[in-house]
UniProtKB/TrEMBL annotation:
Protein name per UniProt: Uncharacterized protein
PROSITE patterns assigned to the protein according to its UniProt record, in alphabetical order: PROKAR_LIPOPROTEIN
Signal peptide (residue range): 1-21
Highest classification ranks of the organism: Bacteria, Pseudomonadati, Planctomycetota, Planctomycetia, Pirellulales
Key words, A-Z: Signal
Presence of the UniProt keyword Signal in the record: yes
Length: 79
């Protein structure tokens, strides 16, 4: 192989690799994690919307009731 054929092969291989990398980067749509942010995919506008209905504002009513009952019982036992 001559030097001309080697350099042509290197150039052709480099161009093919760069073209493949460009095509893959354009056609791939996935979420990315960058500097603590989760960034959406390029297709987020076509995604279906998930709806989560609003729940109760206070998430722990049973725990609050149990704590209140325990405080009341402790108060009664102190007397």
């Amino acid at each position: 192989m001559t030097n001309t054929m080697k350099s042509r092969r290197i150039v052709t291989t480099s161009v093919a690799c760069l073209t493949l990398a460009g095509v893959l980067s354009i056609t791939t749509g996935c979420q990315t994690y960058l500097n603590g942010q989760t960034l959406p995919s390029p297709y987020y506008l076509q995604d279906d919307v998930q709806y989560f209905p609003a729940g109760p504002e206070f998430k722990l009513p049973r725990e609050a009731a149990a704590l209140k009952a325990a405080r009341a019982e402790e108060k009664l036992n102190r007397r």
